[in-house]
Design a protein that fits this description.
212 residues, alpha+beta, Uridine Diphospho-n-acetylenolpyruvylglucosamine Reductase, domain 2, Uridine Diphospho-n-acetylenolpyruvylglucosamine Reductase, domain 3, 7 helices, 13 strands, binds flavin-adenine dinucleotide
Length: 212
Amino acid sequence: MNRMISDLRAAGVGEVLVGEPLAPYTTWKIGGPADVLVIPKGKPELIETVKILYRHRAPYVTIGKGSNLLVTDKGVRGVVLKLGEGLNYVRFEGNLVYAGGAYYMIPLSLLAGREGLTGLEFAGGIPGTVGGAVFMNAGAHGSDMSRILKEAEVVLETGELVRLSNEETCSSVTDIPCCTKYAASSRKPCWNCNTAIEKKSGRRWPRSKIAG
Ligand SMILES: Cc1cc2nc3c(=O)[nH]c(=O)nc-3n(C[C@H](O)[C@H](O)[C@H](O)COP(=O)(O)OP(=O)(O)OC[C@H]3O[C@@H](n4cnc5c(N)ncnc54)[C@H](O)[C@@H]3O)c2cc1C
């Protein structure tokens, strides 16, 4: 474990916090310490982190905003990964939204409306990250991520970066949290999601009708 921590620090991947309490990283503000909490700064640093963890055969879990987590007072053994600021971005291009895995769903939904796009209205009350929403196949009001996701970029356990289609990410279109099934089997941190949403027909939403 010490060797792995030194390697992570030497590689300059971002914050490497030993014995860090997880309570501040969850919605319910409960939970004991992670042996190591790593917050890679961006995409290259995430890839490097995963490669180092793979080399050391270190167990890890990825967390988002912690809105669906109840962490025990005993904390988490091994490494906890949390995506850093470099993956907290959103970009609109035509009918597509490119959102980093660390970006929050609520502002994503609001901004999509402001851009005159439809498809993400269901996510206006989901208090998690894009990465967490893909993993959980978050949904509400009759829609969910599997219906709007075009593709997701995922870092495999070996550190290899792959781009998965909607079908590969969500192997089912039922209400089953398919992304959870997919990712749980292979512990992949999903860092980036390119979300396809359609242009809203007719005029744009009036700004005054959009909260925030
Ligand atoms: C008040 C409230 C309202 C909610 N309303 C809804 C709702 O309407 N619909 C709904 O579906 N959910 C709802 N939720 C649950 C929660 O917000 C969602 O499940 C959300 O998608 C979790 O995202 P997160 O970033 O907080 O993930 P976390 O809670 O941090 O993690 C959840 C799971 O996702 C995994 N994960 C997180 N980020 C990544 C990543 N980048 N790569 C790979 N795996 C990752 C974690 O390992 C964990 O297994 C609600 C929660 C609260 C507290």
